What does this fold into?
Amino acid sequence: FFSSRRRHTRLQGDWSSDVCSSDLNQPPQGAEIHFGFDASGNMVIVRNLTPCPPTESRSIASNRVTIFLAGDSTGYSNGVNQRGWGDELGLHFDPHHVRVANHARPGRSTRSFRNEGLWQRLLAEVRANDIVLIQFGHNDADPLDQGRCRGVLPGIGEQTQSVRFPDGREELVHTFGWYLQRYIEETRRVHARPILLSPTPRNRWHGDHLIRQPNDHGTWAALTAKACDVPFIDATQLIADQYMALGQQRVANLFCCAEDDVHTSLEGARLNAACIANALIDASLLNGAISRRI
It folds into this structure.
């Protein structure tokens, strides 16, 4: 947090907190449990993630960077107890220097996000030097021409398949990597910086071990990032490592309900956002325009 007074208070057990408070003995009453990083970059459980009010004399920097997110429901808050990490990302940055614009929408794939005009709407707001985070995969394996017609072809190559809809429309469907490459090219065209991410992991366990199933879409995102020379954040593994550290019982509370192994609660969204924010900071992907907020 940003404040004229900054302190570290050790709470019971391994619970750490960095809060803005005049009370040097107890955390604020009713504070929620959230996640962040300590001064050494280690994940910690923290309380009271509400930022302190900014100093009156501070003004928004003229070179403030906007971080855009193109993605699905894992980044978007949709439902009573469902919270996406994209809505929590801004807690980790100084708002005078960084703005977060969350354009993720539930149920979208690389194909449908584009076909429905959501990508064009995002791109119209992007300015030079902004950052565009691109994270898909949970919906891209769906059927090409049934249901929501959002599936794509596997891989990163130039393969295509023509599909015809009941109303007579035809569409040429491409591979997962092809759609990512279009997003990269068009982001660069407006002199902004694209960053690819692998999908968030599912809450699936075998005994005490999180099941780390092969993630084809994460692999294809990594390969596309390498081929196009853009940064890649392996959100799947970063978050899975934290799940293993916390254990199955505590991770259960990070998801919106017992029947849902994909969508997170508020606490889960904040853990995911902390992992991604830390990756951005550690890789110096924001050119020093931000400060870590814990």
Observations:
- The first helix runs from residue 110 to 115.
- Confidence is low (pLDDT under 50) at residues 1-41, 45-58.
- The radius of gyration is 20 Å.
